[in-house]
Design goal:
CATH topology: Proton glutamate symport protein
Number of strands: 0
CATH architecture: Orthogonal Bundle
Largest sheet: none
Order of helices and strands: HHHHHHHHHHHHHHHHHHH
Helix content: over 70%
Number of helices: 19
CATH superfamily: Sodium:dicarboxylate symporter
Strand content: under 5%
Number of domains: 1
């Protein structure tokens, strides 16, 4: 009996090992579950471990995840520069770069506006702020910061006179300084300018530069291959760190708000899948199955920039998108396509308006749509940037930014979900534009 039990356990272990082997998405799911469980076990939910010791353990456990993010950041700028320039000057779509650029921008702007409207609509229908006890505001927001009945919505949008200076600020003065600074939007613009200039050159003159950039791309992807081997450990550490510091109680206090954001993100995801099916002529279920590793990694890292190399590889090799489209659309989407972030900002703004009982009116909602769209398009694809943008939007519609303290505890969880939707939007754009632009 003991021998049979031992053989059964060995067979079970062997079967599980074979199941998990070479399935990165499954390893990530297992790491996510174990990380959250371990974080809850040592966190404030159970109080089994002293808070200071729990934070110490969480910090060390998060080390692989932080090293993973640093390793990705190490290659992200050279990969973006090489990919965008080659996508323009050496890609299949180089002769249609004007059409591709305009179509890409229209896709991103249109879907971002739709995302904000979905977020505002979900918040108006569900009314998540009505489920929060106003007593929770005490200690979070000083009474002097509470809005008054006379609180008018200030005009925080830039005036027509200020627009030229804003546009000038988008263009880089020094490409090398821009690459070093890490400004993603200016980096992409610099690469686009260089790529267009290469298109105007003779083929024999641009070939050495394109060969060099091709080698840089290859080096970056080799490093990505190394880094991806440590993804499950990184995921475990990052999520254990979050769960250990936040706990379940914070999530339960704002459960309806979290559910509202997730419902909005689900609707936006369905819209992306509908676009993929109708315009991209791709089966949505096949798309989800093919891109699950990217989506899960985005969920774990909360950074569309961190998963950009894998997004490009998946779109090109598994989804069959032309390299010229991938190398232009994905890096640009990582920089400016933040539909999930924009949706979250719409929900959060309406949620805090309901909590503070501020009626922002139709004009305020329009202002939220404009500001969330513009701010999301210009935001970097890094964790936590949504909170910074949200503070600006709240002040613009007369809601005290200190109210963010009410939702800070669950922001990382929502950041993970909206990043996954952002990355899905990048891939949806590449598939759609691949079919539209011939």
């Amino acid at each position: 009996m003991t021998l049979e039990l031992s053989r059964s356990l060995v067979n079970l272990s062997s079967n599980l090992t074979n199941l998990v082997k070479k399935r990165l998405w499954l390893k990530v799911i297992i790491a996510m579950i174990l990380g959250i469980a371990f974080g809850i076990l040592i966190g404030p939910t159970t109080n089994l471990v002293d808070q200071s010791i729990a934070e110490l353990i969480a910090g060390w456990i998060a080390l692989p995840g932080k090293i993973f993010l640093l390793a990705i950041q190490f290659i992200i700028i050279p990969l973006i520069v090489a990919s965008v320039i080659r996508g323009i000057a050496a890609g299949e779509a180089s002769e249609d770069i004007g059409k591709l650029g305009l179509s890409t921008m229209l896709f991103f702007v249109a879907t971002t506006i739709i995302a904000v409207v979905i977020g505002i609509g979900a918040a108006l229908i569900i009314q998540p702020g009505a489920y929060i006890d106003s007593a929770l505001l005490k200690g979070i927001v000083p009474e002097t910061a509470m809005p008054t009945a006379e609180g008018a919505i200030p005009s925080s949008l830039p005036s027509f006179k200020e627009f030229p200076d804003l546009l000038i600020g988008l263009f880089p003065k020094d490409p090398l300084a821009t690459f070093v600074s890490g400004n993603m939007l200016q980096t992409v613009i610099s690469a686009i300018i260089i790529g267009i200039a290469l298109v105007a050159m003779a083929k024999d003159q641009r070939k050495p530069i394109l060969d060099l950039l091709g080698s840089i791309q290859s080096v970056c992807m080799v490093i990505v291959g190394w880094v991806l081997k440590f993804v499950p450990y990184a995921v475990f550490g990052l999520l254990a760190n979050i769960a250990a510091r936040v706990g379940i109680s914070t999530l339960l206090a704002t459960a309806v708000y979290v559910a509202t954001v997730l419902a909005g993100l689900l609707v936006l995801l369905c819209i992306y899948l509908l676009i993929i099916a109708m315009v991209g002529r791709t089966n949505p279920l096949t798309f989800l199955k093919t891109s699950r590793e990217v989506i899960l990694l985005a969920l774990s890292t909360s950074s569309s920039a961190a998963v950009m190399p894998l997004t490009m590889k998946t779109a090109e090799e598994k989804l069959g998108v032309r390299p010229g489209i991938v190398r232009f659309v994905i890096p640009l989407g990582t920089t400016i396509n933040m539909g999930g972030t924009a949706l979250y900002q719409g929900v959060a703004t309406l949620f805090l308006a309901q909590v503070f009982q501020v009626d922002i009116g139709v004009s305020g909602m329009i202002l939220v749509v404009v500001m969330a769209t513009g701010a999301s398009i210009g935001s970097p694809g890094t964790p936590g940037v949504g909170i910074v943008i949200l503070a600006t939007i709240l002040e613009s519609v007369g809601i005290p930014a200190a109210g963010i303290a009410l939702i800070m505890g669950v922001d990382r969880i929502l950041d993970m979900c909206r990043t996954s939707v952002n990355v899905t939007g990048d891939m949806a754009a590449s598939i759609t534009l691949d079919k539209l632009i011939k």
